[in-house]
Amino acid sequence: MTGALFAQSLVLGILLGGLYALLAAGLTLYFGVMRVVMIAHSAFLILAAYLAWYFHERTGIDPLLSLVITVPLFFVVGYGMQRFLVSRLRPISLTTMSVLLTFAIALTIEGLLGFVWTGTQRRVQLDYSGTSIEVAGVSIAVVKLIAFGLAAVSLGALYLILRKTSFGRALRATTQHPEAARLVGIDTDRVAGLGFGLGLATAAVGGTALSLDYTIYPSLHWHWIGPLMAIIVVGGLGSIPGAAIAALLLGVAASLLQVPLGTTWAQTVFYLALFVTLMIRPQGFFGGRLAQRF
Amino acid sequence: MPNASDLARASRPTTARPTAARVARIAALLALVAVVLLFPSLAPDPFILSVGVVILSYAVLATSWNLVGGFTGYISLGHAAYSGLGGYATALLITRTGLDPWLSLVAGGLIVAVVAIPVGIASLRVRGASFVIVSIALVLILQLTFQSWHTFTGGSGGLRVPRPFGPEVLRPEQHERFFYLHAVLLALALLTWWAIERSRLGAGLKAIREDEDKAQALGVPTFAYKLTALVVSAFFTALGGGLYALWFGYLDPIFQFSILVGTYMVLMSLLGGVRSLFGPLLGAVVVGYAVEVFKSQYGDTQFHLVATGILLGLVVLFMPDGVIPALTSFVNRRRRASSIREVSAEELANQREEAAR
What we know:
The structure holds two protein chains of two kinds. Chain A is mainly alpha-helical. Chain A has a single domain (3-288), classed as ABC transporter involved in vitamin B12 uptake, BtuC. Helix content of chain A is 73%, strand content 3%. Chain B is 77% helix and 1% strand. Chain B has helices spanning 4-11, 19-42, 46-72, 80-97, 101-124, 128-148, 150-153, 171-197, 200-210, 212-217, 222-248, 253-256, 259-272, 279-298, 303-318, 323-335, 345-356, and strands at 159-160, 250-251. Chain B has a two-stranded antiparallel sheet. Chain B is globular and about 65 Å long. Chain B starts with a helix and ends with a helix.
């Protein structure tokens, strides 16, 4: 592999890793507040991408602007999903039953996408779709840069919300110890709902970013959920910084391996990392106490 | 020194008691066997018979799934990995080594059981969440590998499986033979479930399902038990997949390693009831029939995804214990105004006596 090719793959890997990091952060949020493995996360991701595509198709406006609609919409849907569906499950079997429930939601979304917009592959065509900028011999597609920028800004915003606001403090308290959080007067049910909304909002942002650069089709979400699941396990279930680090590392690894192995085999690096992590360190590499019990 | 209740118990006559329920159960079992045995001769045409084979195959898979899902409460969404591997192992053993089809089937099952060991070690050390994640990842990675590995598996072009019976066996007769073969496999899987349920292993597994921490504290070797259940389940699932492959004669990675097949197994078991021996079979008959009717009526549209998704969601939300317990509790609620105790003291005493014997 030549130096230029290496640099190119590295940059592409980091750009992709940024998007993975944002989406994995969403998954981590659900897991943190409710101990829920949210299989439907990537289905909502593809749904947001479809909405961005459809928005562009009908209005001709830049698909990025669909964020104004999809982010609040997904936030409300996420909140409702937690309050009306997930919270109905029995606490004792919550982890496994919530997997099934969100899995059912993922299937339903996939089916509905195929039903409404058929299985045809869709792609947003923009006047800047083909353009790329060159920095030190590495050419970067503008759309990838925008996607990364969106992900980075959203991750930053998420960080600020969690660290600097009183809601963020309540949410972290709920994650760490729900009973203690209730004792100091935090309405953990409401916080869990809002945490879900926030998590689903990351899917809206990610989906819009995805629509700029990818050809989308209804069953695409399976190609995303596997790597994302691997990332949150490697990072340690429940840890957002861990998920972000794992996302960047695995994104870069997959991107570098693509050159000698091709796209399909490079994907297996995520699953390999998942198995290796569970074998040698089942609580993940950056996770805290929480991860050991799940 | 014996206490009062011991004396009271000893003074009672020890005759075989609740005969009515037992007779009813045996009658139902005999009726089930009769229906299965008579079905091929009652089926009006080969198509219905082939639907019967498909439903029995689903029943085998769901019952095998229940060996781990029902006993331990660990939900595997990726059991299609084991059935798919079973199918491919059988087919590849026949085509590559020229082994006898039936030996290949059993060898394939054993190979898959061995494959399940490292998977179990990786995914069972921590609790349910990792297990589910690994089960999904396994299907996805196998689909990827078997699609790309053209030289060995035939890739996305698929793989033909040679028929185990000679050309003189015509299609309807082929269906009939495979119907009985599936029925035998189903009986074996049910028998295994029944045997485990009554064993120490079964008691340990159920303890894990109810409260893993307490089970561990009481000295149940939780990890070894969970791993055993997974390996036995993978073995039967692989046999189910292999037998189906021999009948169907063609393997395509998209359908073999399909998330949807794994979902059907979960849905069938959950709908019928994971805690009962015949729950998955009942679920397989209902869901399998519905799937086949749906396919023949509407073809392979995206709509079956929606239907499966909604049905699974409803089952999870409203009757996670399955139809049978849901109906019983509904009937009980109607019959008695208040049912604070589901078991009366007398029933409890009878049970204790029975257990003591």
